């Protein structure tokens, strides 16, 4: 029997049972007494399988065809990225630093978290076709900042997710959730980076299907979670750019922590550690204040898109306002692609 903190999860007791040359692992969530564990193990029964695994012809749930949305098969379409002058560009293999008018650099903030360097390139991850399903209450090409949660205002329950620098956990103090329709396209948040993990695993099982990307330089790392599926072209070691499709929005996870509605759980870390499979833990939670966007959906509404930069902050929730230059965005604000 072993008790160990699982990154991104609640504490569990792991019971190992040896039977006919194999060792079986059984997870028990929450606290249980020795007597309770013995009682549980005493009820176990082992039977020979009626069918082989290969006969089931199971598909890899993490890598499958794009989901059908609205009866039509989705075809990946890369968003158009733009620079501060409004000129379009396509990311290349060269390293390009996207600068803003203020470049104060990164700095350490409360509880051991860090605020990202404002000159570093982060971009919103959906395209101009996101949330196009009628009746979802969100205009096509937009999503909502922080639904169901924004930064430290967590609604996932008292699971201890709001961490900054715990060494054995994922530090998601400044994670942001964005609601989408199932199958909406999700792109890389970095101008250039390398995939360190794609799929699902045991240590991060509450995230479901996830893609982890280490930005060029190795300092900042993103984790995009609860994806419905991941393209087969996204794998560990793959170089990705801001127009690279990394997955499709969903609500995958683990039954121990309900995921709720379809949404993208997006979080960033600073210098995390890595498990053998490339999934991250430890490091420091990263607060991203400035995000760049292509502005296609915003322009359709006549919203100015001069600098293509949103600025996030903890402000009073407002479900009627749009993120735009000169406005501090926060929970409930609508954000363009």
Write a structural description.
This protein is mainly β. Helices cover 4% and strands 29% of the residues. It contains 2 helices and 25 strands. It has helices at residues 34-42, 296-300, and strands at residues 2-4, 12-19, 22-29, 68-69, 72-73, 81-82, 88-89, 107-108, 114-115, 142-144, 176-179, 185-187, 192-199, 209-215, 220-227, 239-241, 245-248, 263-270, 273-274, 280-281, 284-287, 290-292, 309-312, 328-329, 334-336. The strands form 8 sheets. Strands 8, 9, 11, 13, 14, 15, 16, 18 and 21 form a 9-stranded mixed β-sheet that branches. A 3-stranded antiparallel β-sheet has the order 1-2-3, with no helix packed on it. A 3-stranded mixed β-sheet has the order 22-23-24, with no helix packed on it. β19 (273-274) and β20 form a beta hairpin. The protein is globular. Residues 4-10 and 67-103 have low confidence and may be disordered.
